[in-house]
Input
Amino acid sequence: MRIPLPYSGGLILSYQCNLSCIHCLYNCRGNWKGWIENEKIVDILKRLKKISNFVSLHLTGGEPFINLPLLIEAVKICRNFEIPFFIETNCYWAKNKEIAENILIRLKESGLNSIMLSYSIFYVYKVPIRNFENAMEVSFKIFGRENVSFYTFNAYRIVKESGISESFDFEKSIEIIGKEKFLNFLGNYLVPKGKCLYTLEKWFYKYSPERFKGANCIAEFLNPHHIHIDLYGNYIPSFCSGITLGNYKRVLENGIIMNDRVLNFLINDIYQLLLWAEGLGYKRKDAYINKCHLCLDIRKFLVDNGFKFDCLKPEEFYHEL
Ligand code: SF4
Ligand code: SF4
Output
């Protein structure tokens, strides 16, 4: 199968993250080590630069600020390639305005012009709200308001209005915020894929497996926006996680994705993936949140049971899921 070359996407510098959030799409964690090499960044950018429609890159993780020297080098490389880019962060490092200014000026001087600041109920227990506010105020000053974006400002506002400031206890947070507001927050914030399909399972409505007969992932695989390439070279479609369409070199060369049994089921009919997996010993659930829940649960079963498929990468994604 051939897919269109990407218009926009992110470079996952590492899956290491100091927060290990319960909802993390990529199952990022503090104990997931490993960072991209400069040579790989250069090679990826060289290939992206050749795509005339490629207009926006973001440097992401994990939490890229954990490895500031590498992030600064990555910013310099991006500047040299003249591809518009920004970085994403959870703001943990902005302990006060002086620290925030120091760090952001170094990044600005290295070539950074735009930043996305992330905040949510899930961060509160490790990142005090004032860190986000420090990062926001200093970013406005250094990059200009128009070059600062949020994921999501509504989430920050909910935390601010609720007065939650220190420990994050799920049930307690819901009590404070109110169930309706919490559901509203989840609906506007969560991408219903990855780890949250297990950790927040009870908050979703579910459907019988038959509901997914004939469903496939062609739209996601063909979507040229918001693809990711990770430190291992995996080309990841849309908002999927733990699955690759192939190595970025091959995909960016001609749009041809790998020929893999699991991918072929996903391209054609996810229900057939279920029937096939049952033949290998997979036990179906009574109900699934969405097709991604069905897909992930089967992929997890395959990895946990030692079945090897080239598209099931990175394997660490499936650990502690
Ligand atoms: S801050 Fe972001 S990358 Fe880190 S664990 Fe949370 S959701 Fe994942
Ligand atoms: S079903 Fe799987 S491959 Fe398809 S969009 Fe969802 S997570 Fe991605």
Q: What stands out?
A: The chain has 13 helices and eight strands. The two ends are 30 Å apart (CA to CA). The first strand starts at residue 8 and ends at 12. The chain has a mean pLDDT of 95.
